[in-house]
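Archive transcription. Copying these from loose printouts into the bound notebook so they stop getting lost. Printout 1 of 2:
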Amino acid sequence: VGGARKAFFNGVPSFSVSYDWLAGKSHTKDFTLSAEAILPIIQAILVEVKNETNPQRCFLNIDLPANVANHKITVTPLGAISQAEIDSQAYFKDWLPRVPRCFS
């Protein structure tokens, strides 16, 4: 997620994919199922980027659940709900008021 966020801040179309590995429950075949589930989404993203029809100023965070065969994939367009700030000053003022003052 961090790499996609960094790319986003530099104007590069980006997305991240996470898999919810559960010790004792997940199996290596789950990676194959996850890849099969995510490939159509990645292909659609690449088509949109190539055609320059992808949303601007957002990146996708795709969370693949454990046991992907029996669950839905969640795709969250970060930045579509609220615009991200390059320096995150307002965000930190609300969440951790001392942080912006420490780095000003």
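Printout 2 of 2:
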Amino acid sequence: MATKYYLPEDHTPLPPKSADVMTTCCDYCIVACGYKIYRWPVGAPDGGPKASENAFNTDFPSGPLQAWVAPTQHNVVMHKGRPHNVVIIPDKDSKVVNVGGDSSIRGGCIAQKCYNPDKPTNRQTDKPTNRQTDKPTNRQTDQRPPDLAPGADQRYSAAGELGLRP
């Protein structure tokens, strides 16, 4: 159940050697820094702290400025009808952008954007909200949305009558 306050996770699982590995990019800006996604079924054994037991090939706990997984880099998603863990971390193999696995704080939280019915993302499809008011949007198609840009209709109509692109 989603809460209106932050409940920090006290455990972040490490991906096992058998985890699926995919690549993606950050969509927060036009740079498109690279990230790796590790996915494995919930209930399957997680990776262990030894390098031989996890997909990162790193001993944990790791030293300063070495690989680690923050709670914001983990989420649970549905894949083929079953819950799966996902860990999304900066791609250390990237040779062009975010070389060596650097990331912004926003990019480092991409996993939190993945749909999870038990987290605030559950509102994205079932109960979308207006970003300015945090109130549910009206899903009736015959009702006009709130006027967030007064006069926009008149400018749009005038531009259309003149054959201009609004």
